[in-house]
Fold:
Amino acid sequence: MKRLFYILLLLLSLQSHSQSKGIFAKDPIINLENFDKKRIYYGYFLGFNTYDFKIDYLNTPDVDIFVKRNTGFNVGLVGDLRLQEYINLRFEPGLYYSQRNLTYSGFTKQIDKEREVRSTYIDFPILLKFSSKRVGNVRPYLVGGVSATLNLASNSKSIDDNYQQRFRVKPWTQNYQIGVGIDLYLEYFKFSPSIRGVFSMNDELIRDNDPNSPWTGNIGSMKSRGVFVNFTFH
Structure:
């Protein structure tokens, strides 16, 4: 929550700065007029995320799994290659901290029915950015692409499983991403808030050693879904 407070404070400061420069004025002073003519430029982003799981069952479940989402934190770098006036190729490696809490409905003991899934993701996305025509100091855009993600907290090498309260997932996943954002050209830098959906394309679950496990035996697939809100600075 402290991190979110600092991010919101930063946004309010930037908003006040942009308003003082008339960024949304009818005839604003044009900032960074030649910025988008650069062939390559770099930046960094900060933000937050929320993840859950999309769960498909093999049969009608006797035990439902409820996923509680928590807010996590993002930080990363941006490399941008201009392909043409309205299309850019982007590489945005980032570190994403996340937590999900799973509750299984078929247990009475607290130690059996709850699993805390902490994730530390290193994400490697390749994205295409499709920008509209710049109007004054504002330029909306769409972004989409694919990514490979390494989960450093997957527990994939553990021989223990849910019988020892150890929830395991695969270390690597492949995802597709799609989102929207807006470039705001300030006096000294470009600020780009965006929101993006991230969807895993492969089953991430490592089953328990017992094929009839009440925690994993009836799961056909378990795939991550997430929402990123990033604040990018160039």
In short: Residues 2-20 form the longest helix (19 residues). The helical segments are 2-20, 110-113. The chain is about 10% helix and 55% strand.
